[in-house]
Write a structure and sequence with these properties.
- The complex is a heterodimer of chains A (331) and B (323).
- With 331 residues, chain A is α/β, with parallel strands linked by helices.
- Helices cover 50% and strands 14% of the residues of chain A.
- Chain A has two domains: 155 residues, Rossmann fold (3-Layer(aba) Sandwich); 152 residues, Rossmann fold, CATH 3.40.50.
- Chain A has 14 helices and eight strands.
- Chain B has 323 residues and is of the alpha/beta class.
- In chain B, helix 3 packs across helix 9, helix 5 crosses helix 7 and helix 7 crosses helix 8.
- Classes of the chains: A alpha/beta (331), B alpha/beta (323).
- At the A-B interface, helix 13 and helix 14 of A face helix 3 and strand 8 of B.
Chain lengths: 331, 323
């Protein structure tokens, strides 16, 4: 059986159930890298030029960790998911970059997702991917449909039950969430609600975000994330803020920011990687909107490689204090 | 006699403030940290004890500042609070009407926006310490003058020169260049003050609505030239509280007073901690591949606390189990 490695980084969080179902339907075995560790980050950082962003370094570290565990490594290039909406160049060139900096890795199983080239092109791409495993096009079609259904179920589970990507992946694929080692107070008893906005590869990776969700929950907050909100709501928030998306995955930042500044949350924390081009524009849109509308408080955390957590902790404590004292005053 | 003790251990200075039951300042200590937070807390306690009446009863002790957790372990603090909440609390107790607090310390600077007596927004500098007290200290040292002289000389400036304030490295090369082409030193110094203020307004205060009354707290407020530059840049009055350098310590003392209601007993170790011997050490945890650096503090062979891990394995480990 062919073993396909999937790095637990970047788009993993959005699409794992879909990918896993697709490959398993075609008779392959899926191997997922373990949660991010310092060794992975160090390994990934050593391979790239200095300007590369933290999430890509982490991704490459995951690829390195899978090198001896599988026969192929799945690295998709997501070019576009909508016409005239653009993705970061790092996502466009991910397979090529991986091959260039990790020449010793097992062969890279690439795919090009480019919706702007039409549906037929997408179907052709899926067949091309399936051909690695079977010559029977019907089997590939069946795998594709089942995978798409798995994706829809995954999304619905997150909207309906207000689950994070990690919690939903645990339910659907049985991949255990990394549990904090001490029990968190019952989130339902929380006094205040803090919404996180940003890409899942930052919000869900406890290693690079210094256990952000856990810390917020320990401080007595309920935590909401963008995937808990329906696509419709997020899209209408983008239209309200900017008139329409320019960047792929803009709903995770501008959409969620626009939504949470007005609904459900007592405070919003944006999280972005240092040096991220698209996020520097998108996060600023959210910040400006928050200043203009005088909605709930907004704070942006920029994360980089440093291991000293004091800066993050002080900001989180001050932010939590601020909204909890405000709430206490109001009630 | 009741007293509430606030300890603010910053990167550059250590501050202690004792308040009586009416929240009046009874005694205070202000001294450089010199990279030895533990010794400075011990020495500060010794000094403040001498200022306080012999029958004083410490009913609450709290810590703040970047070494708040470490200091909290030494005195067994009843409350450990971040600097933002502490500074805002102190500002509000002196000026209930305050709407903006500017605070510049040794290594970081912050802005706190207050509306109707409650913090509604804040901003902090990022990793870079450009435009904080350490930078001014460094420049004063380079020009071979004390920070007091720096302040006086800058106040004499007639026409300030423009210095790049975005980054301290650029600022320094700009200053050197201006000095080599013959600009007067006071004009360069005041130009630096303006650059620092401009940098603060464009970075930390970006997008924040700065409304009067404005309070300016922290050690850098000693520098009259910076105060003047802030007034000019903001076009508004800037109030410097009498104890601006102690506001963090005062704020956290106020907070612990608030906390210690219903005859709650303080956990304060007592002033004798200034004689105790503390030992800090660190090691690399090898339980997983993260290889976290764990720091620990111990006294008489007993570990008081550990931190620094990505998980809380070491923090939770019973204190008796020393390594």
């Amino acid at each position: 059986m062919t073993r396909i490695g999937i790095p637990r980084a970047l788009l993993y969080y959005q699409y794992l159930p879909m990918w896993k179902v697709f490959f398993e339907h075609l008779g392959a075995e899926v191997v997922i890298s373990s949660p991010t560790t310092q060794a992975m980050l160090t390994g990934g950082s050593a391979r790239v030029v200095a300007d590369t962003c933290l999430p890509v370094k982490v991704f490459l570290g995951h690829v390195l960790s899978l090198a001896d565990e599988c026969d192929l490594i799945f690295v998709p290039a997501v070019r576009s998911l909508e016409e005239k909406v653009y993705n970061c160049s790092k996502f466009l060139g991910l397979p090529d970059m991986t091959k260039a900096v990790i020449p010793e890795s097992p062969p890279i199983l690439e795919t090009d997702i480019d919706i702007s080239r039409g549906k037929n092109q997408l179907y052709r791409e899926i067949y091309r991917l399936g051909r690695h495993f079977t010559r029977n096009p019907l089997k590939v079609k069946q795998a594709g449909l089942t995978a798409w259904q798995a994706h829809l179920d995954y999304r619905e589970l997150m909207f309906d039950h207000k689950l994070t990507h990690i919690e939903a992946t645990e339910k659907i694929c049985g991949i255990p969430a990394e549990k904090p080692r001490t029990a968190v107070e019952d989130p339902a008893s929380a006094r205040t609600t803090i919404a996180l906005v940003g890409h899942p590869y930052l919000i869900c990776d406890e290693f690079i975000n210094h256990r952000l969700i856990y810390r917020l929950e320990q401080a007595g907050n309920r935590v909401l994330t963008p995937e808990m909100i329906t696509t419709k709501e997020l899209e209408s928030a983008i239209i309200r803020l900017t008139g329409g998306a320019y960047w792929t995955y803009e709903e995770e930042v501008v959409g969620a920011g626009g939504y949470f500044l007005q609904n459900e949350a007592d405070g919003v924390i944006g999280i972005m990687a240092f040096g991220c081009g698209p996020d520097s524009l998108m996060m600023d849109t959210v910040r400006r909107h928050s200043a203009r509308t005088k909605g709930v408080p907004f704070m942006c955390l920029t994360i980089e490689e440093h291991t000293a957590e004091a800066g993050v902790i002080t900001r989180l404590e001050a932010f939590t204090d601020m909204i909890q004292r405000k709430k206490r005053r109001e009630t | 006699m009741e007293a509430y003790l606030g300890i603010d251990v910053g990167s550059v200075t250590t501050k202690l403030a004792a308040l009586d039951e009416n929240d009046e300042l009874m005694a205070h200590v202000y001294q450089p940290t010199r990279g030895q937070p533990i010794e400075m807390v011990q020495r500060g306690l010794e000094q403040i004890k001498e200022q306080l009446p012999a029958d004083v009863d410490i009913c609450g002790v709290a810590t703040t500042g970047s070494a708040r957790y470490l200091a909290g372990v030494i005195v067994n603090a009843d409350l450990v609070k971040n600097e933002i909440t502490s500074h805002a609390t102190a500002a509000l107790s002196y000026f209930p009407e305050v709407q903006t607090v500017l605070e510049i310390g040794g290594q970081d600077s912050k802005i706190i926006i207050i509306r109707d007596g409650i913090v509604t927004d804040f901003g902090m500098n990022t990793v870079c310490a450009a435009g904080t007290g350490s930078f001014l200290d460094h420049q004063a040292l380079r020009l071979n003058m004390t920070i007091e002289e720096f302040s006086q000389r800058a106040m004499d400036s007639q026409s300030a020169v423009r210095i790049a304030g975005r980054c301290t490295v650029f600022a320094e090369s700009d200053m050197v260049h201006k000095q080599q082409v013959g600009h007067k030193i006071e004009d360069i110094l005041y130009g630096l003050c303006q650059a620092l203020v401009r940098n603060y307004i464009n970075n930390i205060a970006l997008g924040k609505e700065i409304k009067s009354p404005i309070a300016f707290q922290g050690g850098v407020a000693f520098n009259q030239a910076i105060v003047k530059a802030f007034k000019e840049e903001l076009g508004a009055e800037v109030i410097v509280p009498r104890h601006h350098e102690l506001m963090g310590a005062i704020g956290v003392a106020l907070l612990v007073h608030e906390e210690m209601v219903n005859n709650k007993k303080s956990k304060f170790t007592g002033f004798q901690v200034s004689e105790a011997k503390y030992r800090t050490s660190s090691f690399e945890c090898k339980s997983c591949t993260n290889l976290c650096e764990i720091a620990q503090i111990s006294t008489n062979g007993q570990t008081l606390a550990r931190w620094g891990g990505r998980c809380d394995m070491w923090e939770r480990m019973p204190a008796e189990e020393t390594r």
